[in-house]
Amino acid sequence: MSTQTTKILVFSHRPEVRETIITAVGRRPAPDLPRVDYVEAGAIADVLYEVDNGSVDLLILDGEAQPTGGMGLSRQLKDEITNCPPIVVAVRRKDDRWLATWSQADAVLVHPLDPLAAAETVAEVLRGSAVPAVKG
What we know:
Elements: E1 5-11, H1 15-25, E2 35-41, H2 44-52, E3 58-62, H3 70-80, E4 87-91, H4 97-102, E5 107-110, H5 115-126, E6 134-135
Parallel strand pairs: 1-2, 1-3, 3-4, 4-5, 5-6
Helix pairs in contact: 1-5
């Protein structure tokens, strides 16, 4: 059995949103992928620290986070970080998927999160395939 893990950063200023995302994606989004270790971030500084250190494999950002939303943060990271890890943005409305496209996110999740769709989306992004469709 492999001891390899994937590190996913989950960003939201609200702990209950982070918990919802972590619960929906789960500890192993697909059988062919390693287990997931989560890093929770409640502030932009925490996200930037982890990304600058190259310590995360994927980011899941809350599009409704305050004071800076995940979509703006996604765009900033994609524009400024060479070899930026893949980013999934969680939004409240399906109509917001165009904003997630603007943000250069690799995939979008829509609340309320469907655990099967959330795990599938994260698994596809971790495997390296872009997932432009809204899941959830």
